[in-house]
Amino acid sequence: MNAAEFRKWLAARGCTFETHRGGSGHVRVLLGEAIHPADAWQ
Fold first, then answer.
1. Could you tell me which residues come within 8 angstroms of residue 9 by beta carbon, excluding any fewer than 6 positions away?
2. What angle is formed at CA 42 by the lines to CA 21 and CA 30, rounded to 5 degrees?
3. What DSSP element (H or E) covers 28?
4. In the predicted model, is pLDDT for residue 35 greater than 80?
5. Phi, psi of 30, rounded to the nearest 5 degrees
6. pTM here?
């Protein structure tokens, strides 16, 4: 599973995504009240 497939999988389960300003490429994955940095899974 690559990053795009994983993102689709998370979105199907109700996660939303928040990109950081400045073009760093980092994305926050939000599920309810929890926040998980997406780069922790790489």
1. 1
2. 50
3. strand 27-31
4. no
5. -115, 130
6. 0.61
- DSSP-derived letter for residue 38 is G
Residues 3-17 have pLDDT tens digits of 889 999 999 999 988
Amino acid at 16: T
Rounded Cα distance, 34 and 20, in Å: 17
Which tokens sit at 11?
Answer: 């979105």
Tokens 């760093």 map to which residue?
Answer: 24
Could you tell me which residues are beta bridge partners of residue 27? Answer: 19
The whole-angstrom distance between residue 11's C-alpha and the CA centroid of its chain comes to 9
Check: CB of residue 6 under 8 Å from CB of residue 17: no
